[in-house]
Amino acid sequence: MKTYVKVALFFVSFIALAGILAALYMYNLKHTDMAKAKPDYVITATLLQKEFEDNETTASAKYTGKIIEVTGIIASIKAADSNVINITLTTGNDFSTVICTFPAIADPSELKPGNEITLRGECSGYLMDVLLNNCAVIK
Q1: pLDDT tens-digit profile of 70-122?
Q2: Local structure of 138: helix, strand or coil
Q3: 74 vs 37: CA distance, rounded Å
Q4: DSSP secondary structure string, 42-107?
Q5: Residue ranges per domain, the chain?
Q6: For 41-138, which CATH superfamily applies?
Protein backbone atom coordinates (compact mmCIF):
# COMPACT_ATOMS: atom_id res chain seq x y z
CA MET A 1 0.00 0.00 0.00
CA LYS A 2 1.26 3.44 -0.82
CA THR A 3 2.35 5.83 1.94
CA TYR A 4 -0.24 8.53 1.21
CA VAL A 5 -3.05 5.93 1.45
CA LYS A 6 -1.75 4.81 4.85
CA VAL A 7 -1.58 8.41 6.07
CA ALA A 8 -5.10 9.12 4.78
CA LEU A 9 -6.46 5.99 6.50
CA PHE A 10 -4.74 6.99 9.74
CA PHE A 11 -6.35 10.46 9.69
CA VAL A 12 -9.80 9.08 8.81
CA SER A 13 -9.52 6.53 11.63
CA PHE A 14 -8.37 9.21 14.06
CA ILE A 15 -11.27 11.53 13.16
CA ALA A 16 -13.79 8.66 13.46
CA LEU A 17 -12.42 7.67 16.88
CA ALA A 18 -12.53 11.29 18.07
CA GLY A 19 -16.13 11.59 16.88
CA ILE A 20 -17.16 8.43 18.70
CA LEU A 21 -15.49 9.57 21.92
CA ALA A 22 -17.12 13.02 21.68
CA ALA A 23 -20.54 11.42 21.11
CA LEU A 24 -20.11 9.15 24.14
CA TYR A 25 -19.07 12.10 26.29
CA MET A 26 -22.09 14.18 25.22
CA TYR A 27 -24.45 11.23 25.69
CA ASN A 28 -23.28 10.65 29.27
CA LEU A 29 -23.13 14.35 30.21
CA LYS A 30 -25.34 15.08 33.23
CA HIS A 31 -27.60 18.12 33.53
CA THR A 32 -26.62 20.67 36.14
CA ASP A 33 -28.70 20.35 39.32
CA MET A 34 -30.20 23.83 39.37
CA ALA A 35 -31.31 23.50 43.00
CA LYS A 36 -27.65 23.30 44.03
CA ALA A 37 -26.04 25.43 41.30
CA LYS A 38 -24.75 28.90 42.11
CA PRO A 39 -26.68 31.51 40.10
CA ASP A 40 -24.80 33.93 37.88
CA TYR A 41 -27.56 36.53 38.34
CA VAL A 42 -30.38 37.05 40.86
CA ILE A 43 -33.18 39.22 39.45
CA THR A 44 -36.96 39.67 39.41
CA ALA A 45 -39.02 38.48 36.44
CA THR A 46 -40.12 42.06 35.71
CA LEU A 47 -36.56 43.43 35.56
CA LEU A 48 -35.33 40.48 33.49
CA GLN A 49 -38.05 40.94 30.88
CA LYS A 50 -37.51 44.72 30.86
CA GLU A 51 -33.78 44.32 30.14
CA PHE A 52 -34.54 42.10 27.14
CA GLU A 53 -37.26 44.47 25.94
CA ASP A 54 -35.02 47.56 26.24
CA ASN A 55 -31.94 46.09 24.54
CA GLU A 56 -32.21 42.48 23.41
CA THR A 57 -28.64 42.29 22.08
CA THR A 58 -27.02 43.41 25.32
CA ALA A 59 -29.33 41.30 27.49
CA SER A 60 -28.75 38.22 25.32
CA ALA A 61 -24.99 38.61 25.63
CA LYS A 62 -25.34 39.06 29.39
CA TYR A 63 -27.86 36.31 30.26
CA THR A 64 -27.96 33.62 27.54
CA GLY A 65 -26.35 30.41 28.74
CA LYS A 66 -26.10 31.71 32.32
CA ILE A 67 -27.83 30.38 35.44
CA ILE A 68 -30.43 32.89 36.60
CA GLU A 69 -32.39 32.95 39.84
CA VAL A 70 -35.66 34.77 39.17
CA THR A 71 -38.46 35.76 41.53
CA GLY A 72 -41.96 36.53 40.32
CA ILE A 73 -45.70 35.91 40.52
CA ILE A 74 -47.02 32.73 38.87
CA ALA A 75 -49.33 33.58 35.98
CA SER A 76 -50.00 30.02 34.83
CA ILE A 77 -48.84 26.42 35.12
CA LYS A 78 -49.17 24.19 32.06
CA ALA A 79 -48.16 20.63 31.36
CA ALA A 80 -46.34 20.28 28.05
CA ASP A 81 -45.22 17.20 26.13
CA SER A 82 -43.39 14.30 27.79
CA ASN A 83 -43.76 15.24 31.48
CA VAL A 84 -42.46 18.79 31.02
CA ILE A 85 -44.11 21.57 33.01
CA ASN A 86 -44.03 25.25 32.05
CA ILE A 87 -44.52 27.94 34.68
CA THR A 88 -45.18 31.43 33.36
CA LEU A 89 -44.24 34.42 35.54
CA THR A 90 -45.94 37.79 35.17
CA THR A 91 -43.84 40.79 34.20
CA GLY A 92 -46.31 43.64 34.05
CA ASN A 93 -46.22 43.42 30.24
CA ASP A 94 -49.28 41.90 28.56
CA PHE A 95 -47.26 40.69 25.55
CA SER A 96 -44.15 39.25 27.20
CA THR A 97 -43.52 36.97 30.19
CA VAL A 98 -40.83 34.75 31.67
CA ILE A 99 -41.42 31.07 30.86
CA CYS A 100 -39.67 28.50 33.06
CA THR A 101 -39.48 24.90 31.84
CA PHE A 102 -39.16 22.05 34.36
CA PRO A 103 -38.21 18.47 33.55
CA ALA A 104 -40.34 17.40 36.56
CA ILE A 105 -41.63 18.94 39.78
CA ALA A 106 -41.85 16.88 42.97
CA ASP A 107 -45.15 18.38 44.18
CA PRO A 108 -46.77 20.74 41.66
CA SER A 109 -49.93 20.97 43.78
CA GLU A 110 -48.26 23.51 46.09
CA LEU A 111 -47.72 25.85 43.14
CA LYS A 112 -50.73 28.00 42.33
CA PRO A 113 -51.24 31.01 40.06
CA GLY A 114 -50.94 34.23 42.04
CA ASN A 115 -48.28 32.90 44.42
CA GLU A 116 -44.80 34.38 44.50
CA ILE A 117 -42.05 31.92 43.63
CA THR A 118 -38.28 31.86 43.20
CA LEU A 119 -36.92 29.69 40.39
CA ARG A 120 -33.44 28.96 39.08
CA GLY A 121 -32.71 27.92 35.49
CA GLU A 122 -30.52 28.41 32.45
CA CYS A 123 -31.50 31.30 30.20
CA SER A 124 -32.08 30.29 26.57
CA GLY A 125 -32.81 33.76 25.26
CA TYR A 126 -35.75 35.89 24.23
CA LEU A 127 -38.50 35.15 21.71
CA MET A 128 -41.20 37.59 22.84
CA ASP A 129 -40.84 35.78 26.19
CA VAL A 130 -37.72 35.19 28.25
CA LEU A 131 -37.03 31.45 28.29
CA LEU A 132 -35.44 29.58 31.22
CA ASN A 133 -34.79 25.83 30.86
CA ASN A 134 -34.06 23.01 33.29
CA CYS A 135 -35.50 25.03 36.17
CA ALA A 136 -35.80 24.16 39.85
CA VAL A 137 -37.96 25.70 42.57
CA ILE A 138 -35.89 27.46 45.24
CA LYS A 139 -37.42 27.40 48.71
Answers
A1: 999 999 888 777 778 888 999 988 888 999 988 766 566 677 888 899 999 99
A2: strand
A3: 22
A4: EEEHHHHHHHHHH-HHHHHHHHTTSEEEEEEEEEEEEE-STT-EEEEE--S-TT--EEEEES--S-
A5: 1-30, 41-138
A6: Nucleic acid-binding proteins (2.40.50.140)
